Structure to design on (757 residues):
């Protein structure tokens, strides 16, 4: 890994082709990275010590291919040759547990990238030399927030690669439905990404054209029930200066889905049911169609029909978790909270749960009599850990179950974290609920009652909402008379 | 003094139970293949299978020893019982991956004890050494996999195997970090991990999610040994997607021969 491998003379003919005199440091790095990608493709030959040691840049250039460390070593050499300090850096790509900083050694790393240290006003930059379609400054998902070993004589410990924040990841999807006076409707879906998703999209659409077209046809058929894909267009994928806007144009004679969306938005539930039933007749396996029927059944309170539908689907498609989730939701609407949790637990036990399943499992414990079980707290913690403690709903659930478990300090801590996560300055209904649960634990029933009453009804109020928890607790709060009896007994 | 018949019988029964318990304990402590088939079967019977598990690991023993140049020899000694037909499919092979540039071809021995008390030895002629292609089609490596199918495997069969991986050159002179899981997808009755190293190759280790593990350290003639023993562990589910970098999900041993990141970075 030593600097001896990074011979500047190896790259001089290549760097001579790049404009390195004009522009900012970042612009120069972009040009050098572009030159690297146009000359060297990603392919690894990891025989013998090549498992650990990169090739000389001259060898990589001769072969015109290299693995992560070969390409990173070449890029470091090119940057240094252009007068930009840079180092190789090793990391263990995510997701999952990172390298233990207290156990130094080789063996835990699986990837090599490039570190450009900060100089004057120029901030540090990390470049993954294998990510051909990533803008300089954008890394692949797995490189973010990981511990890295910078290969330098000055290194004494691991450093952290940048964290990926939500404002750096944007997916814009515009769906336009044009209904003709006569003839088929036109559907146009335009997608744009910023961040690692942009590189993923560029990589995907640069793949096997036939396969991409096949998948696109399948997509518009399933998503829009379109009859055919008219076109699939995108910008020049290798031009990283412009967004790789991807546009699907499809036509469909069936407007059922469009109508179902419209009826749902207009809250016209009987019409939604008719449209979504038509959808499912046309596409019997569509989970999308199933979900629309369920919305209609739920709003029309046709729980028996909902149950029949769920049972049929679960019998026919036992591996589809969407139907199991629907069964759990139905149980809640029927007031069978225990049953709902049992169903959700089966999803968790199968290892197919997502954060939402864990959240619901913990949340519904608030409706059950008796103390909060340790398992519920564990589950709430697990979901909170999974969401990196930045999801409002999950932090709020954790706070509420802590409150109901009598662990008021932790409850308060998580309520404040939830407010931070939502950039909330004043408590909203959900937060008032949390504080009310804490007050109830302290026996300050008047204050608890006041706060429970501040929890507002949701637009589509159903079982399991903050309002429902508040109302349940409000109904069970000791009255003023019984409160004084309790006080007198103390 | 003559003991009444009933008391004597009770004492004999207690002694018998104690002997069975003792032999069950001893079986998991002995060298590989040292237990008689009958005693192995008896000890295995004391470990109840868990519902829905396709196999039960009776013993997961791993020994890591280092020579003064930092070369590691890893001995994997495992005993497991196949519980279901699915287990026959999933637990039907003994193999190990190796890299010729720093490792010797693994040594593999195995035997299968079937329900009819027969012992079926692994035939070395059925072992094959194949190249392993990396998961990405763009990466070519010289890594190899050596192994073969286990004979006479049926539900209820007990498998004992030993795989020896020996480094012919140190993987990385400034220190190597390794990680070995205690957690399996099926229940594990007993786990033993042993680290043995000369004083000149200091090994540091870290245990995760193993609060009740027994740790015994001993020193003899310039070498140190750390023996880690863990009792029954349940089956662990697969790792969920998108877990954060600091979330430890599985009980694990991590160890290193490295002394500082500075030396690793400078190597």
């Amino acid at each position: 890994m030593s600097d001896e491998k990074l011979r500047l003379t190896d790259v001089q003919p290549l760097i001579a082709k790049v404009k390195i005199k004009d522009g900012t440091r970042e612009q120069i790095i972009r040009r050098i990275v572009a030159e690297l990608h146009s000359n060297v493709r990603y392919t690894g030959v990891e025989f013998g010590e090549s498992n650990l040691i990169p090739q000389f840049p001259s060898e990589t250039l001769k072969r015109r291919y290299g693995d992560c460390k070969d390409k990173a070593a070449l890029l470091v050499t090119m940057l240094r040759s252009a007068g930009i300090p840079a180092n190789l850096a090793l990391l263990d790509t995510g997701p999952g547990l990172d390298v233990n900083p207290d156990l130094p050694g080789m063996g835990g790393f699986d990837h090599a990238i490039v570190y450009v240290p900060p100089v004057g006003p120029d901030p540090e930059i990390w470049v993954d030399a294998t990510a051909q379609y990533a803008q300089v400054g954008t890394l692949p998902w797995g490189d973010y927030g990981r511990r890295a070993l910078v290969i330098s004589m000055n290194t004494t410990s691991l450093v952290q690669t940048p964290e990926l924040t939500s404002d750096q990841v944007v997916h814009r999807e515009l769906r336009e439905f044009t209904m003709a006076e006569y003839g088929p409707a036109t559907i146009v879906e335009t997608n744009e990404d910023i961040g690692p998703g942009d590189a993923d999209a560029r990589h995907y659409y640069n793949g096997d054209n036939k396969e991409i077209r096949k998948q696109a046809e399948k997509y518009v058929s399933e998503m829009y029930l379109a009859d055919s894909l008219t076109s699939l267009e995108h910008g020049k994928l290798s031009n990283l200066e412009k967004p790789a806007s991807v546009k699907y144009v499809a036509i469909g004679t069936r407007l059922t889905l469009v109508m179902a969306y419209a009826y749902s938005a207009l809250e016209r539930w009987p019409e939604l049911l008719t449209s979504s039933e038509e959808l499912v007749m046309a596409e019997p396996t569509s989970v999308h169609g199933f979900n629309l029927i369920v919305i209609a059944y739920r709003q029309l309170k046709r729980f028996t029909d909902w149950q029949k539908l769920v049972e049929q689907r679960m019998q026919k498609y036992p591996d589809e978790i969407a139907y199991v989730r629907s069964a759990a939701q139905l149980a809640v609407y029927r007031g069978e909270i225990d049953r709902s949790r049992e169903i959700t637990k089966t999803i968790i036990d199968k290892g197919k749960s997502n954060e939402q399943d864990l959240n619901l499992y913990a949340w519904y414990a608030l409706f059950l009599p008796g103390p909060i079980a340790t398992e519920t707290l564990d589950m709430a913690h697990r979901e909170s850990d999974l969401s990196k403690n930045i999801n409002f709903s999950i932090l709020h659930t954790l706070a509420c179950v802590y409150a109901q478990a009598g662990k008021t300090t932790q409850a308060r801590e998580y309520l404040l974290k939830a407010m931070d996560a939502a950039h909330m300055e004043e408590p909203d209904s959900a937060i008032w609920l949390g504080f009310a649960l804490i007050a109830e634990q302290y026996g300050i029933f008047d204050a608890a009652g006041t706060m429970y009453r501040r929890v507002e009804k949701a637009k589509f109020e159903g079982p399991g909402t903050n309002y429902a928890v508040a109302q349940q607790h409000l109904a069970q709060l000791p009255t003023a008379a019984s409160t004084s009896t309790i006080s007198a007994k103390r | 003094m003559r003991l009444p018949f009933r008391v004597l019988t009770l004492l004999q029964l207690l002694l018998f139970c104690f002997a069975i318990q003792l032999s069950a304990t001893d079986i998991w402590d002995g060298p590989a293949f040292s237990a008689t088939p009958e005693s192995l079967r008896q000890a295995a019977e004391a470990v109840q299978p868990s519902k829905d598990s396709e196999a039960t690991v009776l013993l997961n023993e791993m020994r890591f020893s280092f020579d003064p140049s930092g070369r590691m020899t890893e001995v994997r000694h495992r005993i497991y019982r196949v519980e279901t037909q699915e287990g026959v499919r999933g637990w039907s092979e003994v193999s190990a991956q190796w890299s010729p540039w720093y490792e010797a071809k693994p040594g593999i021995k195995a035997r299968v004890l079937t329900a009819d008390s027969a012992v079926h030895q692994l035939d070395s002629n059925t072992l094959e050494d194949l190249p392993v292609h990396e998961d990405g089609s763009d990466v070519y490596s010289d890594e190899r996999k050596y192994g073969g199918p286990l004979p006479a495997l049926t539900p209820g069969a007990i498998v004992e195997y030993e795989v020896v991986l020996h480094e012919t050159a140190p993987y990385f002179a400034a220190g190597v970090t390794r990680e070995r899981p205690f957690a399996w997808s099926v229940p594990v009755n007993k786990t033993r991990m042993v680290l043995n190293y000369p004083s000149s190759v200091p090994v540091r280790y870290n245990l995760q999610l193993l609060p009740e593990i027994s740790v015994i350290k001993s020193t003899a003639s310039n070498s140190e040994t750390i023996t880690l023993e863990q009792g029954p562990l349940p089956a662990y589910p697969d790792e969920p997607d998108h877990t954060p970098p600091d979330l430890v999900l599985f009980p694990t041993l991590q160890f290193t021969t490295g002394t500082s990141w500075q030396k690793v970075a400078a190597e």
Summary: Residues 24-266 of chain B form a domain with the Immunoglobulin-like fold (CATH 2.60.40.3140). Chain B touches chain A through 48 residues (CB under 8 Å).
